[in-house]
């Protein structure tokens, strides 16, 4: 019973971390910055306590991914040459605290517990976001500013609204996170996680289809072009993984050639036919002003190309050079809207060279976890587990979003990146289908050693 209570507490903590980091904008809008920061400290301290009490046997400092040390170490060192030293200290502190949360989850949770708690957190975020938008449309009946915010004089910029009361107009809705882009990405994560859980039998069919439908409706209501692009990329990645599962490793050359061709074609379309591609999605080719922001960030980064201006995570709009860098709709821009440009701006080319291996090696590991056949010793291959796919699909979504948003470097997306980077490094056993903790009353699993089947009862 004590062990059961312990796992329940760890799972509840993990759900709180995912909700807090992925839904951070909603927490700040509801409770304000002081309480948000206090909760962040509490979660970090509780995480350290859980880690010490759990004493994970696999933990060794040297087993963490080396690029993670390179990146964080460079961020700490950048305080020395930062042009906004106080802000850099705060940004580095927040980065390390967020990393601690991810490392704790990676070591105290199993892969299935990560999937289950992440799925629960996404259900809370999507369900509460739709309930919030429904409340605004039925009760408030007008756009809503964050609690405690005084309306500015003159016309209020749309970006300031917590909700713009557009649910019954077909969106774009912003949900608890106050951003259609962020809510759309949460819904995309929901499509991945709920789809895997449904196909693997980890949830009951009614629950699985219900939340899969809610996630898809949310994607429609957010009306984000970049989310649809990421969804297409995830679907293509899924197709490649399923194709790879049907081939022996030494026969996968055609698959890799196809993947390289698809990536090259997508990059060419983005560079040379951006207006046409995004026009099909009803969006302009400048990606809502992002191209102009990118040009300004590149100009600034070129002034300090190798080591950057100093790490800050969130941009500090009161400090130079961010104060006069760019504005949109009367508000200062808070990020480069591209994680890679943001790393270049803040940590220079050296920072990019540290960050790139962290992402690339994580994709490499979760790819093979998704497509390699599970085995026990030197025995025959076991049936593939559907749940082996979700880390790989989530990494595709994170990388695609990083091209138009900087969220990969902060809060929930950074937690997911570090969690997958660490866990795929230290817990690399490929799961088999018969190890999945199915919620279905029974499931027939083929046995590779003969032509029969067995019933796995739970």
Summarize the structure.
With 458 residues, the chain is mostly helical.
Radius of gyration: 22 Å
Beta strand %: under 5%
- The overall number of domains is 1
Percent helix, as a range, is 55-70%
Number of strands: 4
Q: Averaging pLDDT over every residue, what do you get?
A: 85
Helix/strand order = HHHHHHHHHHHHEEHHHEE
Q: In terms of structural class, how would the helical and strand content be classed?
A: mainly alpha
Main sheet, how many strands, which sense, barrel?
A: 2 strands, antiparallel
Q: What is the overall number of helices?
A: 15
Termini separation: 19 Å
Order the strands across the largest sheet as they lie in space.
1-2
Shape, principal axes of CA atoms:
globular
Spans of at least 5 consecutive residues whose pLDDT stays below 50 are 441-458
């Amino acid at each position: 019973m004590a062990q059961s209570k312990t796992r329940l507490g760890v799972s509840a903590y993990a759900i709180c971390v995912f909700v807090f980091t992925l839904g951070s904008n909603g927490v700040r809008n509801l409770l304000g910055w002081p309480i948000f920061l206090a909760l962040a400290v509490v979660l970090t301290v509780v995480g350290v306590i859980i880690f010490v009490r759990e004493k994970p046997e696999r933990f060794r400092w040297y087993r963490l991914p080396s690029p993670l040390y390179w990146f964080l170490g460079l961020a700490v060192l950048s305080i020395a040459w930062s042009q906004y030293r106080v802000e850099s200290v705060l940004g580095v502190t927040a980065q390390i605290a967020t990393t601690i949360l991810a490392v704790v989850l990676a070591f105290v949770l199993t892969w299935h517990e990560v999937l289950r708690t992440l799925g629960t957190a996404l259900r809370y975020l999507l369900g509460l976001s739709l309930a919030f938008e429904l409340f605004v449309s039925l009760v408030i009946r007008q756009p809503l500013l964050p609690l405690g915010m005084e309306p500015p004089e003159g016309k209020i910029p749309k970006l300031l609204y917590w909700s713009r009361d557009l649910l019954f107009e077909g969106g774009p809705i912003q949900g608890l996170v106050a951003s259609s882009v962020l809510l759309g990405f949460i819904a995309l994560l929901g499509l991945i996680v709920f789809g895997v859980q449904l196909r693997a039998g980890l949830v009951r069919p009614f629950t699985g289809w219900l939340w899969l439908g809610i996630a898809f409706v949310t994607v429609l209501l957010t009306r984000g072009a970049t989310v649809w692009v990421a969804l297409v990329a995830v679907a293509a990645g899924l197709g490649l993984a399923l194709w790879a599962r049907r081939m022996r490793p030494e026969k996968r050359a055609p698959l890799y050639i196809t993947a390289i061709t698809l990536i090259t074609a997508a990059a060419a379309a983005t560079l040379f036919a951006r207006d046409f591609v995004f026009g099909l999605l009803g969006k302009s080719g400048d990606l809502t002003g992002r191209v102009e922001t990118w040009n300004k960030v590149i100009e600034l980064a070129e002034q300090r190309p190798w080591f950057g201006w100093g790490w800050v995570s969130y941009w500090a709009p009161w400090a130079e050079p961010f104060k006069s860098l760019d504005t949109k709709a009367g508000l200062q821009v808070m990020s480069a809207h591209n994680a890679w440009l943001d790393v270049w701006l803040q940590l220079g080319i050296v920072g990019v060279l540290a960050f790139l291996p962290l992402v690339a090696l994580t994709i490499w590991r979760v790819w093979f976890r998704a497509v390699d056949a599970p085995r026990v010793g030197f025995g025959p291959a076991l049936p593939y587990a559907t749940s082996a796919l979700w880390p790989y699909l989530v990494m595709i979504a994170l990388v695609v979003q990083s091209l138009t948003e900087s969220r990969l470097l902060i809060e929930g997306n950074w937690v997911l990146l570090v969690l997958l980077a660490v866990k795929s490094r230290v817990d690399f056993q490929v799961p088999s289908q018969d190890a999945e903790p199915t919620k279905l009353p029974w499931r027939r699993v083929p046995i590779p050693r003969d032509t029969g089947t067995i019933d796995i009862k739970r």
